[in-house]
């Protein structure tokens, strides 16, 4: 009787992965006043983004990948398989950042996929299918206002020309900025549907830490609804206008903020999360009752039905507020809306099995944030590996942190998943 | 038996007053999108303010006044009296405006006093005391952040150098801008205490219209308290951060706004008025829980004791809010604070008697807004004439309007009051 050795796993190099993450984080770094830490500001299509892209492409070429850049500036590094007819396995994420970022969001997925290829090279592993490392353009959406922009164009949800015509806060056009940094590539903006897509990402939340798991299997992305609410009131002198004659746009907006939290606390909408991130008034003077207030409302829900109920009830509250205050007018604009995106069961099973075989405990959980994987899910079987974060999983903040061990754990799971999918 | 003729009154020219108001309103005019009307934007020490000052000074000189400009840019036009030792009667207001103004706020008091002098000239009237028409610099406080600035320096409440060092939103220094527009005058920044000060001004409120009086006798200015409240929370991802882990600065600020209105509605603080005119968040992104929110709170009360109670109760609410949400920190800064300023009883009697003799019904009322008269009240007997406004007395808005008849009524009352005080 022969006892078979445990299956060999890809030799992911934790130190190499970490030093790549830290090297990329130097590009766009700044001293963050709020935290006292060095933060990262590498927003899409800035000079910093271009420098980050050049660093990444250099590493891809060193790893023997064939690099192509598409018309959206999405960067692909391809490692050939043994079967010329086989569809590839794509793994990636993004390296653009918000204005006050840490080192991990997005970067772990891109540099993790790169590390998988490096480990395959080190081990002399060949796969039947090609493996492609993808780095998507403007995932954060903070500069041009639409998140997952690069992957949304690649998968056909957003037309290329519409993306090109988006403008940043300074009025600069996406298409022009893409050309300016030298990343308006020749390849088609539409990606051919791959065999599968897998993305490793920090959780950006506290659940894995609370449950004691280094990695998680992501079952899908919760529904997201963004609206901009503009309240029109009437400007009036703070000292002379009797309270009963006021049509106070700022007060009405504040009532919306408080009400939205009451909706969350009521429990009537399941696991609803609600955020008012933006609040401004006009004319914004201490002694003038606001004639206008503008807020954003970000709703998330893992259940499409409960999301619809929350949206309807919020709309009813706005209508009531308008009725209660003659002269008040409330406008709403839906600025983003995606239903629940369920991930592919088979890819989830590959991830879970890889974690199990590597000896990591894991759990299935839903993503609260949007990711490029939800765009790829529209054209190919897709799923994600989540990596535990520290400090309650704080993200979009220089305090964002996952340990070198947990990053390596996530990338080892990614590696085995890719290996399994690529055979 | 002889029947005495009714006493002659000064021949105030309603048309001349109105055409002067309309001519001044052309300087700084702009098409106002919100109202569809032409508005006025003639903020202190802008080129428009300088042009307005030059127009005024030309008119003063045409009326035979001796013009002096002090080190704060306050403009004085003096008409001599017959008694070289008599202290003058000063009448005036301001011609600077907020960014979205009408034609009347301040201008009525300056051009009204000018019309009084013109009418005296027309009637060949001499007075024992000199009469001075005053136009104060930066009454609105919208550009350099401190209202009644010119009169506050003239009367000694604010040091000249402190005023010079104030900066506008673009970082420009008050003293430099004053010199740039050519209005840093040679006269001392400190005015000699006059015999009396009287100011005609639109009411900027609905009371005279509601009570059916064209003019009012102002008994004083209510107490004013301004504070800037800064709430420090913790930035967090809108999609991934569980509600119970959030320290939402924007939500806390919204709760303050709602609470302040509840304080007003409670009736516990008498005739308290409260306004949150300014509300902003950081980083102000739809999908980030605000780490900072900044609001202004403007409190007004005709009773100093009830104002103190309102301020104390608001401070207690802020402390409670901080205690309820671990991690939340609330800072407050008092940016303005004036107690109730009672006006002089004798000057009020002069105004009331003038209105009575001219056949105008009137009433006594307190001012909700601050005025230069409250600064002058610190050094000389002072009071104000209010003129009825239309549209609920809307002000700081292009819809601000008082009829030609009501403007003339106010200026006729001003004229007889000045005449009485100057004898």
Question: SSE layout and pairings?
Answer:
The structure is a homodimer of 423-residue chains.
Chain A: H1 14-25, E1 29-31, E2 38-40, H2 47-62, E3 66-69, E4 75-79, E5 89-94, H3 107-123, E6 131-136, H4 149-154, H5 160-164, H6 174-180, E7 196-202, H7 207-211, E8 215-221, E9 223-232, E10 236-237, H8 249-266, E11 273-275, E12 279-282, E13 288-289, E14 292-301, H9 304-324, E15 329-338, E16 341-342, H10 345-358, E17 364-367, H11 372-376, E18 382-387, H12 404-422
Parallel strand pairs in A: 5-6, 5-7, 7-18, 8-17
Antiparallel strand pairs in A: 1-2, 3-4, 4-6, 8-16, 8-18, 9-14, 9-15, 10-13, 11-14, 12-14
Describe this structure in words.
- 2 copies of one chain form a homodimer.
- With 423 residues, the first copy, chain A, is α+β, with helices and mostly antiparallel strands.
- Chain A has 2 domains: 14-221 and 340-422, Aminopeptidase; 223-338, Alpha-Beta Plaits.
- Chain A has 12 helices and 18 strands.
- In chain A, the strands form 4 sheets. In chain A, strands 3, 4, 5, 6, 7, 8, 16, 17 and 18 form a 9-stranded mixed beta sheet that branches. In chain A, strands 9, 11, 12, 14 and 15 form a 5-stranded antiparallel beta sheet that branches. Chain A has a two-stranded antiparallel ribbon with strand order 1-2.
- In chain A, helix 1 runs antiparallel to helix 3 (107-123) and helix 8 (249-266) runs antiparallel to helix 9 (304-324).
- The longest helix of chain A has 21 residues, at 304-324.
- Chain A is elongated, with a radius of gyration of 23 Å.
- In chain A, 57% of the residues are buried.
- Chains A and B meet through strand 10, helix 8, strand 12, strand 13 and strand 14 of A and strand 10, helix 8, strand 12, strand 13 and strand 14 of B.
């Amino acid at each position: 009787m022969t006892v078979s050795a445990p299956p060999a796993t890809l030799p992911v190099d934790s130190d190499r992965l970490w030093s790549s993450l830290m090297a990329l984080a130097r590009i766009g770094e700044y001293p963050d006043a709020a935290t006292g830490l060095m933060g990262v500001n590498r927003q899409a299509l800035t000079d910093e983004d271009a420098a980050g892209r050049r660093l990444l492409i250099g590493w891809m070429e060193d790893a023997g990948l064939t690099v192509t850049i598409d018309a959206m500036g999405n960067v692909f590094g391809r490692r050939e398989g043994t079967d010329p007819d086989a569809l590839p396995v794509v793994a990636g994420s993004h390296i653009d950042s918000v204005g006050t970022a840490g080192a991990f969001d997005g970067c772990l997925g891109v540099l993790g996929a790169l590390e998988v290829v490096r480990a395959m090279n080190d081990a002399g592993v060949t796969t039947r299918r090609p493996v492609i490392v993808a780095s998507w353009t403007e995932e954060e959406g903070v500069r041009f206002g639409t998140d997952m922009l690069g992957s949304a164009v690649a998968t056909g949800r957003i037309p290329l020309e519409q993306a090109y015509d988006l403008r940043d806060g300074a009025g600069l056009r996406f298409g022009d900025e893409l050309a300016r940094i030298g990343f308006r590539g020749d390849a088609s903006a539409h990606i051919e549907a791959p065999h599968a897509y897998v993305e490793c990402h920090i959780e950006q939340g506290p659940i894995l830490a609370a449950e004691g798991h280094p990695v998680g299997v992501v079952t899908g992305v919760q529904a997201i609804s963004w609206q901009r609410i503009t309240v029109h009131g009437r400007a009036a002198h703070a000292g002379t206008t009797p309270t009963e004659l006021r049509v106070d746009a700022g007060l009405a907006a504040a009532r919306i903020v408080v009400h939205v939290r009451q909706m969350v606390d009521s429990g009537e909408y399941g696991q609803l999360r609600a955020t008012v991130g933006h609040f401004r008034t006009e004319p914004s003077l201490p002694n003038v009752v606001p004639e206008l207030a503008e807020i954003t409302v970000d709703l998330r829900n893992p259940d499409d039905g409960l999301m619809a109920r929350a949206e309807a009830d919020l709309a009813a509250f706005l209508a009531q507020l308008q009725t209660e205050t003659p002269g008040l007018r409330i406008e709403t604009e839906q600025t983003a809306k995606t239903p629940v995106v369920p991930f592919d069961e088979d890819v989830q099973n590959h991830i879970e099995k890889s974690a199990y075989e590597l000896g990591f405990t894991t759990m299935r959980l839903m993503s609260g944030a949007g990711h490029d994987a939800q765009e790829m899910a529209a054209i190919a079987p897709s799923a994600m590996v989540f990596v535990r974060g520290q400090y309650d999983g704080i993200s979009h903040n220089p305090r964002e942190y996952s340990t070198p061990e947990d990053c390596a754990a996530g990338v080892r799971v990614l590696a085995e998943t890719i290996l399994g999918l690529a055979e």
